[in-house]
Structures are given as structure tokens and as C-alpha cells.
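Changelog note: in this version the structure field was regenerated for every chain. One regenerated record is shown below for reference.
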Amino acid sequence: MTQLSRRRFLAISTATLGATGVATQWATLTGSANAAQVAAGTVKEIPTFCEMCFWRCGGIAHVRDGKLWKFEGNPKDPQSNGRLCPRGTGAVGAHYDPYRLRQPLMRVGERGKEQWKAVSWDEALGFVAEKMNKIKAEHGPESVALFNHGFGQRFFQHVLKSWGVINYAGSSYAQCRGARDVGFLLTYGAGVGSPEPTDIKNTDCLVLIGSHLGENMHNSQVQEFAQAVERKVPVIVVDPRYSVAASKAKYWLPVKAGTDIALLLAWCNLLVTEGRYDKAFVEKHGLGFDKFAAEIKGYTVEWAAEQCDVPAQLIRAAAREFASHAPRAIVHPGRRVNWYGDDTQRSRAIALLNALLGNYGRQGGMFVSQGMKLAPYPLPKYPEHTKPRLDSAEGDRYPFADEGVTTAIRDATISGQPYPVKGWFVYSANLMQALPNEAETIKAIQQLDLLVVCDTMPSEMAGWADVILPDTIFLERHDEVLTGFGRNGWAALRQPVVAPPHDQKPAWWIAKQLAEKLGIGACMPFKDMEEYLSYRLEKSGHSWETFKKEGIIVAPHKPITVEEGLELEFATPSGKVEFWSDQLAAKGFDPVPKYTKHPEAPAGLFRLITGRAPGHTFSRTQTNPLLHDLMPENEVWVNTATAVKLGLKNREYVTLKNQDGVVSNRIRVKATQRIREDTVYMVYGFGHTNKMLKTAYLKGASAGGLNTHYKTDPIMGATSIHTNFVSLIKEA
């Protein structure tokens, strides 16, 4: 094997097919005429749905003279309503990103040194299949695990499960939304889902607790939020930072980070003691209310004011405000809620506060989402297995986890218990930034016999791979049909708009070829995605040709609120809204959330909290030529008074050093009064250390890299991101 330099890696594209050859090959491969060359001087509009974030808005791609020109919202789509966020419109830049992975690569030399040789797809997949079968023979198929993120993983997961894989997880669960969904599931018998069923469009009051609408760019919700602000709806924001949402608020409560449960329980207590809760809703649908009321009796507003460092009159005024608008009031469930390690109970407290408002299934509150079903394709059943999944392998380790837990797989890989994990597939997930404590991820990788990364970009995770498989971006491929939940159910089509620029292949094709190499080709018994998708549509009574032209099917509207005739049902064991949870009590957990004080910052250090930027998607878009200029690097927000004490000037570079001695890349100071003095804030996703990402290399600091100390929620396995403290070190 010959070693390739990084310069040679970036020059690999010169050996790929010319544009005409690629387009012809792609049209043959997909069976789609959409990607064929277009006559000069013409513009073709092709509907698809976006993957720049998980909101997956419907969009229309414009191809001019055979080249991708622009991407805008599909007016028929309920997620976009004809408008895309900055990331969505920047999807064109993802196609043209000069640092994309271009063809299969195999490691040369030591893991993590980013030394590769270019190989054919046949050689790469043959190597992977050989390694997988060796692991299977020695340890069993359960010893291969899948980490996935995004919509394209559907057939990767299918093929691996068909081969015998039982351990698979996405960081969107234990590192993002899982605690929220479990908290609501334990209360109402239903999780929150995505998009959240918040009727912001019709609400009369909105409460946001660390939910940064306007910065996280959850498209349809941001549109409704803007309309609510225009309607002068009172907004209440709870956040140590004066966020964009806080700038629109009637009340901003700058709570001390980590005290959210104290505030929530005090609000619940105020509504109960002052009789401001929905008595009819509680009487008809509630279970264990009296025990709940007794349990929260000691959580007074004055007590919470001391814990949260917020005036009692502000806490009381905010509560009376949202209670006065019930049931047309919402305490937003949030999305990325894994903050302190007790996040299921915090989310349950939010669920209970909403229950006191009686807003479940009510207009202006939390509507009951409707979905849409399509006929399945007849795929073979998965093989049976006898070994336990790793996230439940230690008895009741995470008794309420209803999805895979990434860190449980990582822990088992390190320990080899209850059985060894020897292979990882990582699809579209930069685990180095997504999982806490990078050192533990590296330790786990060192135990592996095979690490395969399938992605579009050369991330830090890809730098540790044995084999890198270059995926297409969403504008270059078919995927599974998206069936969405919301005010109406809907289905959206993803279809190729342009050919991939080099030797990238779509995930479904890679999975199908791997299945053939593994001797299980029968698990994907269709020629191509057109055959698969058209079967599902036609069997469901829809026109495949119409679907290709319009991209969206919206189901007939069904009642989603009581006002429309909805009959409320709750899939809890009791069939009621469970103010007191016997489920939790039976597993040794508090049946009603309790407040436990979290450690405060040691002298000279500040609690680090994080968030999102409207122009970037996690760590995936920093080299996107359209989005890079919007925000080439992140900043660390520091209170102006704190900056003066430390001798720091606005826009000055510093490094951050956490309590474990980990030091970040350099990052600019944003001196501002918009944050508490005991807290600093930064946007996630920057500080890349993969040198192949030239324009993003060492730009800004990685919040993930500083997340070395974390707590794990014992209820469902979520890992915290706001339990680290940092000092700021001036550059010499």
C-alpha cells in the first residue's frame, strides 16, 4: 500500500468521470430522468425535501443549464410553507462544497493519522464485508453496531439488521431530545415527536425555557413565532442568556443555569395554591393530583427566587401571565434538552405544568398530531437473536429508554461486557463532537477490528475510520418516503436533482451493494429506488407520477383539538395524565420531579452553556461556501463586567480551559450584557481539527471537546452538556 498525502487526497477528483459521464451514469443508476442533462438556457424545477436539519422541509430545486442553481421552499409543504431557513437555501453550497469526500478511501498506517489510499467501490465494500463476516464468525453479528444520524440511514440500518445487528443508536436521542420525549411519555402516554405539536399559530402566550426559537431555525415554528410576536402575544423566556427569543419577550427570567426544575416546581405550586389550574381538565383526565400537590407544597416562589437568583415578583408575574391565558398557553417542550443529567424529570415537570394549564389537545396549546400511512414494501423479516441489546444489557440500566443509547454502546465497546463490540458503522454522525468526552470515544475505537464511516464530509470521526464511504447529499439521491406528523399528516418525496460531482454514491445503493457482498442481497428485493417507492405509492392509492411532480401529498384533515371534536385519550397505564407516576416509583425513581441543586462553578471558572446558529447545522456546514461567510467562527459570550474583571476586550482571542485541564482552540470574546456574570455561552459545531476541512480548520472552539465531565440520566440514558466549567485565558 502506498501512502497518500493530504494534498493528493484533495486532488483525487481529477481522476473521476467527467460531468457528462457522471450524469449519464447517475440517470441509469437511479432510473430517474430528473438528473439527466438539461438543454442549454432552460430551468427545471424539481421538488424534494431538505436534509440540512431534521425539520426536513419540502423544497423545490432549480436546475439551470443542467447545474444546480437555487433551492427554495415548496408552498405545498406544511414544514416550509414555501420558505426555507438560511441552512436550507444554503443547500446549494453543500453540493458545491470543495472539501466533500469524493471517492472510497481505505486507511494506510495508524488509525487516526488521516492517511489514505483511494480505492474502488468494489474493493472498499469487499473489504468491509470480509471484516464483518470475520467478526460474525468469532463473536456473533451483535458485535457490530450502527451509529446513525439523518434520514439516509434507513437502508443502512435495514441491511445491518438483516445481517444480525441489534445495537443501533442515533445521537439525536441520548444527546438531544430523548429525555423530553420520555418525560412526556410518562405523563401523557405519548412523546412529543418532531415537529413538536405546539399550536404557536393560535396561542395567546408562549413560554420558552432554554428553547432558542430564531436561532435553532425550526422553520415552521419560527414562522409561527414571528407571527405571534407580530400579534403581540406575550412571550416569557427563561434563559441565563438574553437570546433572540428573549429580545421579543414580555418577561425574561435570567435564571442561574441548572435551576430550571426549581422554577418549574414553584410555578406548579403557585398555580395549585392560587387555584389557577384547569380544575375541569385535572378532574376528568388527571391521576394522582392530590399526591402531586402535596409533594410540591414546599416549592414556594420565594424559595425558587433564592435558588434561581431571579426576583420573586418576576417569577410570580410570569406565572400569572401564562395562567391567565390558559388553555391557549404553551410551555414549550424544547428540543435539545440534555443539560444536567436529570433531564427526564425536568421535561416531566414541563409536561405537568402544561397539564395544569389544561392545554393538551386544545387550540392554542398542544394539539394532537396526525400522521399518514403508506403501504409497506414486502421486505423479509429480520433474523431472531438471543443476546440482549447493549442499552438494556445490565438489567434495568436505563429502564425507560425506548431508543438506542449511543453511550451505552460506547461503554460496552470499552469494557467488552456483556459481550465484545468489534465493529462500528457510523453514518452521517461526527461522534467526536456529538458524544461527551472525546477521549472515551477514542478509547472505544481502539478496541475495534472495523470502523466504517459513511458521510459527505471528512469529519473528525472520519479521520479515525478504516474505510470511508462517500455519500451523496440529499439533492443527489432518492431516500425513503418521509411520512410526517403535524396538523395534517403528509408524505414527502426525496429524489435526485443533480448528479453527484464525483464518485459519491447514495446510501441506499451502498447498502444494497454491501448486502450483495454479505450474501444477503434478498433483503433488498428491488432493482432501484424508483421501483421501491412507486410500489409503496401505488399500493397506497396515490399516483407515483404526480408525486414526482409535486413532491408532497397532504392527508385529509382530522380533528387535532377538542374544539374540532377530538376525544382525548392517554396511553399511560392508567389511561390518565399521570401527575403521580407509579411507573417511575416502581423503578426506584421519584414519582413527582424533585429539585436537586447542581454544583456551582469553582472560583475563577464559569459554567459553559451552548446553543445553535441559524446559519449552521451542527458541525456539518462550516466549509459550505454559502454558509461559511455567514459565520466563519463562533464566539464566547462573556458578561461585560466579567470581561472587565478579566482584562478582556471585545473581539479579543482567548482559549478556554475546562475543569479537567482540556484547552480549546482560540475563540473570540463577545463582551455583552446579554448573559449572566457566572455563565459563558458558545455555539456548538466549530473548532474542527480535521486538516482536510481547510476553511474550517481550527476556526473557533469546540464545545463538544470541552464536554469532558458529564452526567447520565438514569431514567433513559441522556448525557449532559452543561455540566462543565471553564476559565478564559488571554493569548500571549
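Spot check on this record: The chain has three domains: 105-174+394-474+506-540, 175-369+561-586, 606-730. Residues 1-38 have pLDDT under 50 and may be disordered.
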